[in-house]
Amino acid sequence: MHKTIWAALAVSAGLAASACAQPAPVGPQPKNDYSQDAAWLCRPGRQDACAQDQTATIVAADGSTRVEPFKADPKAPIDCFYVYPTVSTDPGGNSDMTIDPAETIVAEQQLARFGQVCRTFAPMYRQVTLAALRQVMQGKPSPGDENLAYGDVLDAWKDYLARDNGGRGVVLIGHSQGSRLLLRLLAEEVDGKPVQKQLVSALILGMNTPIDPATDAYGDIKMCRKPGQTGCIVSYVSFRASSPPAEPAFFGKATPDGKRAACVNPAALAGGEAPLHGYFSDRTIAGAPRKTPWVKGKDVTTTFVSTPGLVSAECATSGPYDYLAIKVHGDPADPRVDDIPGDLMVLGSPLKAWGLHLVDVNLAMGDLVALVGAQGEGWK
After folding, report:
1. For residue 327, what are the β-bridge partners?
2. Are 305 and 68 in contact (CB under 8 A)?
3. Which of 233, 81, 257 is nearest to 154 (CA)?
4. Is the pLDDT of residue 13 over 80?
5. Cis peptide before 248 (omega within 30 of 0)
6. With 70 as the cut, is the pLDDT of residue 167 above it?
7. How many of the other CB atoms lie within 10 Å of CB of 25?
8. Which of 156, 162, 182 minimizes the C-alpha distance to 97?
9. What stretches pass through the bilayer (predicted)?
10. In the chain, helix, strand, coil percent, each to 5?
11. Average pLDDT for 93-103
12. Which pTM value belongs to this model?
């Protein structure tokens, strides 16, 4: 298979493939110094990856448009601590600590908008790379070390708590590999520990959060099921309702010990179908941008676009799978675009096993930001 297709597969899989692979044996690695600004992708008060413009064009079904300005709140009452997904294009098994375009793009797509409601912190970390995932998907041992990646996230978390937190509430945000590492952090460093009282919520996106159906909890941390609830988890994986997950899909699958993958609809915490407030752009978290005709006869010049009423979602179950079922309500008779980006395309066809993994966060970005804002007010 052509190497670019392997790259696409690796991006879509996140840590799905490496979750089953043993980390490559490596010698002791030096710790990163997270007291240094250079070790962070985003920190408050800097012109960095989280300072990118989030201005959006709202495109209505009738073709009318308006520009929605964006302004971060440097005095936001809570913090967000973000761990990004598998995006590194570095050649080794684990990435280096240099901020490349891949990390900047993913912060633009997944974190910067949260600056409206929280101070944004995002450590660089020596993640398992796309190159390592390609090796796994070709049946070879992984050269990546997940423990090294987790150790960096843990060190950054401890540095954040010591230098920056000051008793503030904090939201943990992750996607794919980032979510997998945050699940470990929650289990080992938050659940049952004193810092748990400062957990506003955790957004564990694009990765399976294994929960006991009887308790609806990950360990002792409950899922978010009602407005105003704090200290809880929002987690989902997304698939088109018309193409539900099935073997060999990894995302959303139950575990052999009977735990199910959590599904929390951020637009309807208590359940049911609801419109999603998404923010899309001409690029996803992977690959070069492709021009999208968002509306006939008009050019959209902002990086982001929101399409009210075009997409809705509802948590669904299909055999061993639990997932956020995405419905797109395109109308060929109106001038607005009739579909959304997010499928991983291989040889011109969508790779159905990975659903809409590339836009898990974008699909509900507006809902997630609003939820975190409300939770922050409630936590205060």
Report:
1. 312
2. no
3. 81
4. no
5. yes
6. yes
7. 7
8. 156
9. none
10. 30, 25, 50
11. 97
12. 0.94
Relative to beta strand 232-236, strand 199-205 is parallel
* DSSP label of 16: T
Lowest mean pLDDT among 20-24, 275-279, 343-347: 20-24
Over residues 208-236, the mean pLDDT reads: 97
Q: What is the reported pLDDT for 345?
A: 81
| C-beta separation of 278 from 68 below 8 A | no
Q: What is the DSSP letter of 157?
A: H
Q: Cα 186 vs. chain centroid, distance in angstroms? A: 16
Instruction: Using DSSP, state whether 78 is helix, strand or coil.
Output: strand
H-type helices in the chain, by residue range?
3-13, 101-110, 130-137, 146-160, 177-185, 360-363, 365-379
Return the C-alpha torsion angle 190, 194, 196, 198, nearest 10.
-130
Which residue type sits at 342? G
The whole-angstrom separation of Cα 245 and Cα 247 is 7
If phi > 0 it is left, if psi is from -120 to 50 it is alpha, else beta; for residue 216 that is: left
Query: Where in the chain are the domains?
Result: 37-378
Q: Which two tokens stand for residue 85?
A: 């997904």
Q: How many residues does the chain have?
A: 380
* Cβ neighbourhood burial of 364 (10 Å; 0-12, 13-18, 19+): buried
What are the structure tokens assigned to 312, written together?
């809705």
CA distance 270 to 216: 13
CA distance 21 to 19: 6
Question: What would the pLDDT profile of 303-320 be if each residue is shown by its tens digit?
Answer: 999 999 999 999 999 999
Whether 259 contacts 210, CB under 8 Å:
yes
Stretch among 14-18, 93-97, 109-113, 177-181 having the lowest mean pLDDT: 14-18
Tokens (6 digits) for 179: 């979510």
Q: Which of 335, 371, 334, 329 is nearest to 240 (CA)?
A: 329
User: Which pLDDT tens digit goes with each residue over 228-275?
Assistant: 999 999 999 999 999 999 999 999 999 999 999 999 999 999 999 999
The whole-angstrom separation of Cα 10 and Cα 49 is 23
| Structure tokens given for 154 | 């843990």
Confidence band (pLDDT; 50, 70, 90) for 5? very low
Cα 280 to chain centroid, rounded: 14
Contact 146, 18 (CB under 8 A): yes
